[in-house]
Design goal:
Layout: H1 13-16, H2 29-43, H3 49-52, H4 55-72, H5 86-90
């Protein structure tokens, strides 16, 4: 939300009192690894031990690919859809 003007309308304080501001930082690599490793271990419970042991490696490899893609596919005015987030990583799992 910006200041009123330029097509923006003022929002009354009465309605603003009904909303809360939530802010979070982008997780570190170790946090992302822990999140997706935990999901992988849970999803692989029904498989053999050989497959179960691949969950940590799959999480690390997926995050590494995610980082490489973020570095090489930068958004430009012509390619503004090159914006990636953790949701894209979660689609693997």
């Amino acid at each position: 939300m910006g200041k009123p003007g330029g097509g923006r309308a003022e929002i009354s304080p009465r309605i603003l009192s009904k909303f809360h501001i939530i802010n979070y930082t982008i997780p570190t690599q170790s946090n992302m690894r822990k999140i997706f490793e935990t999901i992988g271990i849970y999803k692989f419970q029904a498989f053999d031990d050989e497959i179960k042991s691949l969950a940590p490696d799959l999480a690390i490899a997926t995050i590494n690919i995610f980082d490489i893609i973020q570095q090489h596919f930068l958004p430009t005015p012509a390619k503004s859809h090159y914006v990636f987030n953790m949701r894209d990583v979660s689609k693997v799992f």
